[in-house]
Amino acid sequence: MAWGKSTTKTESGVTDSTTDVFTSNKFNQILIDEVWASATVSAQIQLGNTTIDTGTNYAARYSANGVADVTSTSQSYSILSDGNNNASGEGHFYIIYILNLEAEEKLIIANGIDNTNVGAGAVPKRNEVVGKWVNTSNQFDIVNSNNASGGTSDKNISVLGSDLTPAAAVPAIDDVQDNSLFIEKENARRYWFDADSRITSLDGTNNGATTGVTGKIGNAWDFNGAGDYVNIGTSTSDFNFMSSSTALWSVNIWVAFDSVGTNEMIYSTGTGSTAIPQSWMYRDTNNDILTGLTSGVSGTYSLANAATGINIPDTNWHMITLTYDQSLSSNNLKAYKDGALVSQASKTGNVSTNADSNQAMRMFGGVTGVQQDMEGKADEMSIWNRALTSTEITTLYNSGTGVTVTGSGISLTDLKAYYNFEQTGNTLENQLTEKTWTMQPTWRDDLSSSTNWGGLSGAFSYDATNDEIDFNADTSGSSSYWNLGSTLSDTAWVMRMKIRLDTMSSSSANMQNFTIGLSSTNGAYNTTQDSIGMLIRADSAGNKYKSTWGNDTTQNGNTSNFTRTPSAETIYLEITRDSATGFTVRQYSDSDYSTLLESKVVTGVTATGLQYVKLTTYAEASTNNMVGAITDVKIYNGVTSIN
User: Fold this and answer.
1) In which element (H, E) is residue 393 found?
2) How many independent structural domains does the chain possess?
């Protein structure tokens, strides 16, 4: 916790010394040192908001020099000194800690010493105080040091403050075993420790490549040279370290081209559909591997299509390695073919970051007007924020056999991304992992059984094969619910669930509703209960829409329509209670809740006492045009975000 000085006041020959009004802080230290000019009875402290509170709103318990505690209640001050008369020239020093919460009494802990007993053979007197200022309406922002019964002294008052909240006492990562559970005592938040949590932010999205083909090691991906590529990362800044003013990197990859004599891009960073890349590597029509670095379209080239000395005139597997260190005065780029250093090149200028892009990295696909897509196979690609050594590169080549990065035994320090191309789906998975604490739900039901749910009849049924609750809109107005057993916070919680709409069509003769949310009762949604959720509807006019749903005893259905029209789709719903009078509903397209489709903020709903997860359906006619399912329900109580 860092302390900043809030105010200082120095005065001579005074009985009282009052600071100027200062900006309030949550945590405070008050340092008072004084030298007495005359005798007095005791030193005291008073607090206030704008003006000093001199009323009987203080209480304290203190002990002087280890004697029995003295209790003072309904006082106009908190006592600081030992209560003894003090000689002229005697010095005192006090350290006072105050917790300054607006809605709580202000707690005081103080320690004081003086030099009445002089000499090495005598110890100073001491005083310990615990006290409080009972004001709960305001934070204090002014301090008075007072000499009781008169007497003057030279005083210096310094107030130090901090609003930084100490981090939650989650155990240090290196001291924790995998799959450990940590529970915060104060709020019962639960955190699960995963020693091998995969870093998914640098996963790649496959656009047309054939997966599962024979690679250098295990599987590889095959690109057809006519539109196949992979986009890596979620931010244009993910690979800025490769083209920044302190550029330092290595790229290692195994490739096998299908033909020779054609332009084929291997990778490019910071590039959109037509922009010049920030960094790139490709093979030209002479079968030479070239590389470049620039600040962007209007930036400075550090390497402009520099020849690496690597020539690949065949369709065999080859390992290409480039390292770059912009801090060197020469030989910034080193190029290796099949584990052996082929050439070195010096920069022509320094590159500064200038991201003019809409993606982090594109692999094996060119940009319009610059280079062509790659035709061939790729395997075992690693990207580093350091220059690999020649020994490490030789190790990765492994006499032509190759070896996985994680199985090579070389240091993984500053390894930013690693792709082994073993996946056969649409995601190229970054194999790097990290140790993480993940917040766990207060309540969770993965629907592996129906034990928690009531009302599974009529429009609702349990599907044990798919672990879900199926629903359809019927005329019975059915409700199914999960009683959590206790009420949620009225100001902070998050609920998540997966919703699949199999059929969603409108009919002018058939209004249909499906409502999902949290409620104070297990009955149908109406004005006699409090509730928060989302409504999916096809109305009698043939319109289809989704809307938020908020209800309390003063209003029924405070709603706001989403822009997206509901259809046969899967969404991941998140409802966040973020204040006593509002909530936010978000729809995501993925189970990581990272790709937001749409969100709506609702205000003016003071719903309280919510403890039922509730599903309801209703249809005006027997024709059923709304069919779907829900699963994986999670509720995090006492929080407004998930980390």
Assistant:
1) helix 390-397
2) 4
Q: What is the pLDDT of residue 306?
A: 66
550 shares a domain with 421: no
Same domain, 108 and 186: no
Average pLDDT on 237-260 reads: 82
- Beta strands of 491-568 (E only): which ranges? 493-504, 512-519, 531-538, 544-551
Residues 264 and 143 in one domain: no
The SS3 call for residue 3 is coil
Looking at the structure, do residues 320 and 392 belong to the same domain, yes or no? yes
Sequential DSSP letters for 6-58: EEEEEEEEESEEEPPP----SEEEEEEEEEESS--S-EEEEEEESEE--SS-E
Which residue from 81, 83, 77, 84 is spatially nearest to 92, judged by alpha carbons?
81
- Whether residue 480 contacts residue 614, with contact meaning beta carbons closer than 8 Å, is answered with yes
**Domain CATH number, residue 65:** 2.60.120
Q: Name the pTM for this structure.
A: 0.48
Q: Which domain holds residue 184?
A: 178-196+434-440
- In the prediction, which pLDDT does 620 show? 65
| Spatial CA neighbour of 47 closest among 155, 147, 145, 149 | 145
Q: Which two tokens stand for residue 451?
A: 């034990």
What is the rounded CA–CA span in Å between residue 483 and residue 496? 16
Q: Do both 386 and 461 map to the same domain?
A: no
Exposure string of 559-569, with b = 16+ CB inside 10 Å and e = fewer, is beebeeebeee
Residues 6 or more apart whose CB falls under 8 angstroms from that of 312 comprise 255, 257, 260, 283, 287, 289, 318, 320, 337
Q: What are the tens digits of pLDDT across the range 562-571?
A: 888 888 889 9
Looking at the structure, tell me whether residues 370 and 455 fall in a common domain: no
In this predicted structure, the answer to whether residue 358 has a pLDDT above a threshold of 80 is no
At 70-123, the pLDDT tens digits run 888 888 888 776 555 455 667 778 888 898 877 788 889 988 877 666 667 677
Length of the chain: 643
CATH number at residue 345: 2.60.120.200
Q: How far is CA 606 from the centre of its chain?
A: 28
pLDDT by residue (tens digit) across 360-416?
A: 677 777 654 455 788 899 999 999 999 999 999 999 999 999 999 988 899 988 898
Closest by CA to 39, choosing from 89, 81, 75, 4, is 89
- Exposed/middle/buried for residue 239 (C-beta within 10 Å: 0-12, 13-18, 19+): buried
The alpha-helical segments, DSSP class H, found in 136-245 are none
Tell me, yes or no, whether 173 lies in a domain.
no
pLDDT at position 292: 74
